[in-house]
Specification:
The chain has about 240 residues and is mainly α. The chain is built from ten helices and two strands. The chain has two domains: about 80 residues, Multidrug-efflux Transporter Regulator, Chain: A, Domain 2 (Orthogonal Bundle), CATH 1.10.1660; about 130 residues, Multidrug-efflux Transporter Regulator, Chain: A, Domain 2, CATH 1.10.1660.10.
Length: about 240
Amino acid sequence: MSIGAVLAQLRGDFPDVTISKIRFLEAEGLVRPGRTPSGYRQFAPADVERLRFVLSAQRDHYLPLKVIKEQLDAADAGAEPDAAVPAVPRLPRRLVPLGDPSTAGLPAAADFEPGPDTRLTQEDLLAQAGIDEQALAELCQYGLLRPGPAGFFGPESVLIARTARALTEFGIEPRHLRAFRAAADREVGLLEQIVTPVYRHRDADAKARADELVRELAALSVTLHTLLVKAGIRSVAGD
Protein backbone atom coordinates (compact mmCIF):
# COMPACT_ATOMS: atom_id res chain seq x y z
CA MET A 1 0.00 0.00 0.00
CA SER A 2 1.04 3.63 -0.43
CA ILE A 3 2.25 5.86 2.39
CA GLY A 4 -1.09 7.67 2.26
CA ALA A 5 -2.97 4.40 2.76
CA VAL A 6 -0.72 3.56 5.71
CA LEU A 7 -1.43 6.97 7.22
CA ALA A 8 -5.17 6.37 6.87
CA GLN A 9 -4.86 3.04 8.72
CA LEU A 10 -2.82 4.50 11.57
CA ARG A 11 -4.73 7.74 12.09
CA GLY A 12 -7.57 6.06 13.99
CA ASP A 13 -5.25 4.97 16.82
CA PHE A 14 -2.59 7.65 16.41
CA PRO A 15 -4.27 10.95 15.45
CA ASP A 16 -0.99 12.89 15.55
CA VAL A 17 0.88 10.70 13.05
CA THR A 18 1.83 12.38 9.77
CA ILE A 19 3.48 11.40 6.51
CA SER A 20 6.58 13.29 7.67
CA LYS A 21 6.62 11.17 10.83
CA ILE A 22 6.45 7.93 8.83
CA ARG A 23 9.26 9.14 6.57
CA PHE A 24 11.31 10.04 9.63
CA LEU A 25 10.85 6.55 11.12
CA GLU A 26 11.91 5.08 7.78
CA ALA A 27 15.02 7.27 7.72
CA GLU A 28 15.86 6.03 11.23
CA GLY A 29 15.62 2.40 10.06
CA LEU A 30 12.54 1.46 12.09
CA VAL A 31 10.51 0.51 9.04
CA ARG A 32 11.81 -0.56 5.62
CA PRO A 33 9.12 -0.42 2.93
CA GLY A 34 9.76 -1.71 -0.54
CA ARG A 35 10.00 0.53 -3.60
CA THR A 36 8.35 0.42 -6.99
CA PRO A 37 10.58 0.69 -10.10
CA SER A 38 9.68 4.39 -10.18
CA GLY A 39 10.76 4.87 -6.56
CA TYR A 40 7.40 5.05 -4.76
CA ARG A 41 7.17 3.44 -1.35
CA GLN A 42 5.21 0.18 -1.05
CA PHE A 43 4.22 -0.84 2.49
CA ALA A 44 3.22 -4.37 3.41
CA PRO A 45 0.82 -5.21 6.28
CA ALA A 46 3.87 -6.22 8.34
CA ASP A 47 5.26 -2.70 7.90
CA VAL A 48 2.04 -1.22 9.26
CA GLU A 49 2.19 -3.49 12.32
CA ARG A 50 5.81 -2.49 12.82
CA LEU A 51 4.80 1.17 12.76
CA ARG A 52 2.03 0.45 15.27
CA PHE A 53 4.59 -1.12 17.59
CA VAL A 54 6.90 1.91 17.32
CA LEU A 55 4.14 4.46 17.86
CA SER A 56 2.67 2.53 20.79
CA ALA A 57 6.08 2.13 22.46
CA GLN A 58 6.62 5.86 22.20
CA ARG A 59 3.16 6.91 23.34
CA ASP A 60 2.46 4.35 26.06
CA HIS A 61 5.93 3.61 27.43
CA TYR A 62 7.91 6.73 26.47
CA LEU A 63 10.69 4.56 25.04
CA PRO A 64 13.46 6.29 23.05
CA LEU A 65 13.73 5.29 19.39
CA LYS A 66 17.14 3.68 20.00
CA VAL A 67 15.62 1.22 22.46
CA ILE A 68 12.64 0.52 20.19
CA LYS A 69 14.98 -0.16 17.28
CA GLU A 70 17.02 -2.58 19.41
CA GLN A 71 13.85 -4.50 20.26
CA LEU A 72 12.77 -4.62 16.62
CA ASP A 73 16.23 -5.74 15.49
CA ALA A 74 16.17 -8.47 18.13
CA ALA A 75 12.77 -9.64 16.89
CA ASP A 76 14.03 -9.60 13.28
CA ALA A 77 16.93 -11.81 14.35
CA GLY A 78 14.53 -14.30 15.88
CA ALA A 79 15.32 -13.45 19.49
CA GLU A 80 12.90 -12.46 22.19
CA PRO A 81 13.26 -8.67 22.44
CA ASP A 82 13.13 -8.59 26.23
CA ALA A 83 15.90 -11.18 26.46
CA ALA A 84 18.13 -9.62 23.82
CA VAL A 85 17.87 -5.99 24.92
CA PRO A 86 19.16 -4.79 28.31
CA ALA A 87 16.36 -4.02 30.70
CA VAL A 88 15.34 -0.39 30.52
CA PRO A 89 13.06 1.53 32.84
CA ARG A 90 9.58 1.63 31.32
CA LEU A 91 7.57 4.52 32.59
CA PRO A 92 3.98 3.58 33.38
CA ARG A 93 1.38 5.05 31.10
CA ARG A 94 -0.48 6.38 34.12
CA LEU A 95 1.17 8.62 36.67
CA VAL A 96 -0.55 6.76 39.53
CA PRO A 97 -2.69 3.62 39.71
CA LEU A 98 -6.21 4.52 38.65
CA GLY A 99 -7.58 2.12 41.24
CA ASP A 100 -6.25 4.30 44.02
CA PRO A 101 -9.30 6.16 45.42
CA SER A 102 -7.14 9.05 46.61
CA THR A 103 -6.28 9.92 43.02
CA ALA A 104 -9.53 9.09 41.27
CA GLY A 105 -9.95 11.06 38.08
CA LEU A 106 -6.25 11.60 37.41
CA PRO A 107 -5.85 11.10 33.64
CA ALA A 108 -3.28 9.08 31.80
CA ALA A 109 -0.39 11.28 30.75
CA ALA A 110 -0.51 9.89 27.23
CA ASP A 111 -4.29 10.34 27.01
CA PHE A 112 -4.30 14.06 27.81
CA GLU A 113 -3.01 15.53 24.58
CA PRO A 114 -5.21 18.42 23.40
CA GLY A 115 -4.20 20.14 20.20
CA PRO A 116 -1.34 22.63 20.34
CA ASP A 117 -3.76 25.59 20.10
CA THR A 118 -5.91 24.50 23.05
CA ARG A 119 -6.35 27.32 25.55
CA LEU A 120 -8.18 26.97 28.84
CA THR A 121 -9.92 29.69 30.78
CA GLN A 122 -9.56 29.74 34.55
CA GLU A 123 -13.10 28.32 34.83
CA ASP A 124 -12.23 25.48 32.41
CA LEU A 125 -9.13 24.64 34.40
CA LEU A 126 -10.92 24.65 37.76
CA ALA A 127 -13.67 22.40 36.42
CA GLN A 128 -11.40 19.91 34.65
CA ALA A 129 -8.73 19.71 37.35
CA GLY A 130 -11.18 19.52 40.27
CA ILE A 131 -9.46 22.24 42.31
CA ASP A 132 -10.71 25.45 43.86
CA GLU A 133 -9.55 29.03 43.28
CA GLN A 134 -7.30 29.01 46.35
CA ALA A 135 -5.47 25.91 45.13
CA LEU A 136 -5.08 27.46 41.69
CA ALA A 137 -3.72 30.67 43.21
CA GLU A 138 -1.10 28.67 45.12
CA LEU A 139 -0.06 26.73 42.01
CA CYS A 140 0.40 30.02 40.17
CA GLN A 141 2.15 31.65 43.14
CA TYR A 142 4.81 28.96 43.23
CA GLY A 143 5.26 28.84 39.46
CA LEU A 144 3.73 25.43 38.77
CA LEU A 145 1.08 26.99 36.53
CA ARG A 146 1.67 30.03 34.35
CA PRO A 147 -1.21 31.65 32.48
CA GLY A 148 -0.39 33.38 29.22
CA PRO A 149 -0.58 37.14 28.65
CA ALA A 150 -4.30 36.87 27.86
CA GLY A 151 -4.97 34.88 31.03
CA PHE A 152 -5.43 31.49 29.34
CA PHE A 153 -3.74 28.29 30.50
CA GLY A 154 -1.94 25.77 28.29
CA PRO A 155 -3.11 22.19 27.56
CA GLU A 156 -0.77 20.65 30.17
CA SER A 157 -2.25 22.71 33.00
CA VAL A 158 -5.02 20.25 33.90
CA LEU A 159 -2.61 17.36 34.32
CA ILE A 160 -0.17 19.51 36.31
CA ALA A 161 -2.97 20.68 38.63
CA ARG A 162 -4.34 17.16 39.13
CA THR A 163 -0.87 15.80 39.85
CA ALA A 164 -0.20 18.55 42.38
CA ARG A 165 -3.58 17.82 43.96
CA ALA A 166 -2.68 14.12 44.23
CA LEU A 167 0.58 15.03 45.99
CA THR A 168 -1.32 16.98 48.64
CA GLU A 169 -2.76 13.62 49.75
CA PHE A 170 0.78 12.88 51.00
CA GLY A 171 1.20 16.23 52.72
CA ILE A 172 3.20 17.77 49.87
CA GLU A 173 1.96 21.31 49.29
CA PRO A 174 2.52 23.53 46.22
CA ARG A 175 5.17 25.51 48.09
CA HIS A 176 7.18 22.30 48.40
CA LEU A 177 7.12 21.86 44.61
CA ARG A 178 9.06 25.00 43.67
CA ALA A 179 12.16 22.85 43.21
CA PHE A 180 10.35 20.87 40.48
CA ARG A 181 9.57 24.10 38.62
CA ALA A 182 13.15 25.32 38.91
CA ALA A 183 14.54 21.97 37.75
CA ALA A 184 12.13 21.86 34.79
CA ASP A 185 13.12 25.37 33.73
CA ARG A 186 16.80 24.40 33.80
CA GLU A 187 16.08 21.30 31.71
CA VAL A 188 14.09 23.35 29.19
CA GLY A 189 16.99 25.78 28.84
CA LEU A 190 19.41 22.92 28.22
CA LEU A 191 17.23 21.03 25.73
CA GLU A 192 16.29 24.24 23.91
CA GLN A 193 19.91 24.60 22.79
CA ILE A 194 19.67 21.21 21.06
CA VAL A 195 16.20 21.50 19.53
CA THR A 196 16.01 25.13 18.36
CA PRO A 197 18.60 24.78 15.55
CA VAL A 198 16.65 21.82 14.13
CA TYR A 199 13.38 23.78 14.10
CA ARG A 200 15.15 26.55 12.15
CA HIS A 201 16.01 24.29 9.22
CA ARG A 202 14.04 25.17 6.11
CA ASP A 203 13.43 21.70 4.64
CA ALA A 204 9.94 20.15 4.74
CA ASP A 205 10.73 17.51 7.36
CA ALA A 206 12.51 19.81 9.82
CA LYS A 207 9.52 20.21 12.12
CA ALA A 208 8.89 16.46 12.23
CA ARG A 209 12.54 15.82 13.08
CA ALA A 210 12.50 18.51 15.76
CA ASP A 211 9.25 17.23 17.27
CA GLU A 212 10.69 13.72 17.37
CA LEU A 213 13.86 15.03 18.97
CA VAL A 214 11.79 16.77 21.65
CA ARG A 215 10.01 13.49 22.43
CA GLU A 216 13.30 11.61 22.59
CA LEU A 217 14.94 14.14 24.88
CA ALA A 218 11.85 14.40 27.10
CA ALA A 219 11.70 10.62 27.47
CA LEU A 220 15.37 10.41 28.39
CA SER A 221 15.05 13.35 30.78
CA VAL A 222 12.07 11.86 32.62
CA THR A 223 13.76 8.44 32.79
CA LEU A 224 16.91 9.95 34.27
CA HIS A 225 14.88 11.97 36.78
CA THR A 226 12.97 8.83 37.86
CA LEU A 227 16.16 6.83 38.31
CA LEU A 228 17.86 9.56 40.32
CA VAL A 229 14.86 9.88 42.64
CA LYS A 230 14.71 6.10 43.11
CA ALA A 231 18.43 5.90 43.80
CA GLY A 232 18.20 8.78 46.26
CA ILE A 233 15.31 7.23 48.18
CA ARG A 234 17.05 3.85 48.34
CA SER A 235 20.16 5.55 49.65
CA VAL A 236 18.19 7.28 52.40
CA ALA A 237 16.45 4.01 53.25
CA GLY A 238 19.83 2.31 53.54
CA ASP A 239 19.28 -0.22 50.72
